[in-house]
Amino acid sequence: MRLFKIPFDDSDSAPEIIAKEIELHGLNEDSILPFFDVEEVKKEEAGEKLFSALEQTDKVVSLSGSHMISAHLISSFSKKYNNCGVIIFDAHPDCDGEDDILPSIMRNNVKNCNIILVGTRGWKSKEAVFLKSNRIRMFEMKKVIDFGKEDVIETIMETARSFKALYISIDLDVLDPCFAPGVGCYEPGGMSSRDLLFFLQRLKKLQNLKAIDITELKPEKDINGMTAKLAAKIAAEMC
After folding, report:
1. Are 140 and 111 a contacting pair, CB within 8 Å?
2. How far is CA 96 from the centre of its chain?
3. pTM of the model
4. Which of 16, 47, 127, 169 has the most CB atoms less than 10 A away?
5. In this structure, are residues 108 and 116 in contact, taking their beta carbons and an 8 Å threshold?
6. 115: Cβ–Cβ under 8 A, 6 or more apart, which residues?
7. pLDDT tens profile 138-162
8. For the chain, which domains are there?
9. Other C-beta atoms within 10 Å of 6: how many?
10. pLDDT digits (tens, 9 = 90+) for 163-182
């Protein structure tokens, strides 16, 4: 599997730190030893690199310290695959202005009905209006708890199977801060690490899954490297 380290700027050490943790990882929970063909990629070239990599490999994992890199990657992904779908694990819906992630990818060929948000629990009034007016499907944390993980994942997978290709974007702040202290924005009431792994281990069974990104590690806020280790485990579990 290809793995791209994509620093968002010169101070972004998150991709390198996660990659080093992946090197230390043993077998994943399917008893598979993760192997990644690792490449460092400039932010400006990330979309083009993803496009070309998907010609050569079944799946690509990208690492970055900023979730904004996802807008570049998903936009490139949507040019390669018509009717692609995007599942975003995030505490926030990221639609606060035209340059935010959701408006950006919607301008780049990703259909409203092909976007699924999971784990959201913090948004502004204008974001609530945007989500409602664009009919974005969202499984906020309250709904995950009320309906139960099994029912939610079955509903998500039923929709995701219909996509020509699937992209999964993971902002680590989807996790409760007690499981992931090394993120940019703390939002209480989030997923446990086990919850997130439950969803991802089911979704990786989909044959149309082509790309994953793991973003928003802030090493300076991390405690004992626990968020970096969790990010590495997430990458390993997608093998």
Report:
1. no
2. 18
3. 0.97
4. 169
5. no
6. 85, 86, 88, 102, 105, 106, 136, 137
7. 999 999 999 999 999 999 999 999 9
8. 2-237 (3.40.800.10)
9. 26
10. 999 999 999 999 999 999 99
Short-list 211, 237, 233, CA closest to 75: 211
CB 194 within 8 A of CB 234: no
Say if CB 135 and CB 111 are below 8 A apart: no
Encoded amino acid at 134, one letter? N
Sheet holding 85-89, edge to edge: 37-40, 2-5, 60-64, 209-215, 166-171, 85-89, 115-118, 137-139
Q: How far lies 87's CA from each of 14, 56, 113, 161, 181, in Å?
A: 22, 23, 11, 12, 23
Q: What is the pLDDT of residues 25-55, one digit of tens each?
A: 999 999 999 999 999 999 999 999 999 999 9
Are 157 and 150 in contact by the 8 Å Cβ rule? The answer is no
Q: Which two tokens stand for residue 50?
A: 């993803």
